[in-house]
Amino acid sequence: MKDAQVDQKIDMEEPECELGHRVVAPNKKKITSAHRRKDLCPSSMVLPTLILVLIGLVVFDVIMESNIISRVPAAILSSNHEICSPKVLNASAIEYHSGHRYYDELKDMTVPVPVFRDQHTTLCGKKTRLAAKYNYCLPISGRKDAPFCSAADRMDLLNLRSPKSTCYASVLHMLMVEIYEELQATGNIPFLTFGSLLGAVRNSSMIPFTEDVDIGFVGELVAPDALRLALRRKGYHMFFMDIWRVCVAPTHPLAGYLYDPNVPLAESFAVPYVDMYMMKQKDDGDWDLQELEGSNGRLLPDKRVQPFSQVKINNMSFDAVQDPRFFLQEAYGDDYMTPKPRKEQS
Q: Which residue spans traverse the membrane (predicted)?
């Protein structure tokens, strides 16, 4: 019941999606006609202002339609399918938690809205979102090859012009930083764990072929409703599926650059996402971390956990357990420093 009330509060703040728009090719006859009207003007320039206004409107209309068409697969142009665009959030109206230049540059950008068709049009519906898990995540693809993506950073996303130039890990870096910041802002104690900690220890960077971000938090999640609301206001979708998870929503300020129309709606784990793991201290002092499979199951000795240490990813500091190498050995084995792309793992 509480979730429904929170979703209702969020929905009241969000504008409706733009539904039922149809994309058509620019009308060449319309342009030609406008030019003829201009050529037929008498030398005395009768009604010059009116003519210029008409021409301006025609040109503006063509530019706007062309801009939309340029980002839509050709299949749309030869069909009569209805399409929709979400009401993408304006980065300039979002309150971020740091003065990093990424946010300054993001606010100065003009990003075209994504255009959805067929099954993807469900991404425009709020009712679908309320019960959705991965299937409300923005379809995103990305490269995972080294060395192209070895130093992937969220700053890379500010210069994208094609999904083919997107590094998956760049999207993950964006998710990691903003979810970590939002956890702190809502009174939680976050720390990097599993694969994200592994990248920090190996190279102080994101692992280029990684598929998700792993963030732990101490104790029960503080103010989960407030966290969901805050993340939604930034263009993220938080949902519970065994554990709390977060992905990029269709309303994200960069959705127009990140969206790949050739990627199907995700059922699970097929988009960039964040896993959030609860770590609680037991009565005997040991710490229980969700989904850890170590030599003592999910348990870690207190002296290996606190006080927290710090690690870096892309020159940004994050908290981690006191002994990151002990943890990684428990989680991945003695050879944890050896890169193992997903397909090679047993």
A: 45-64
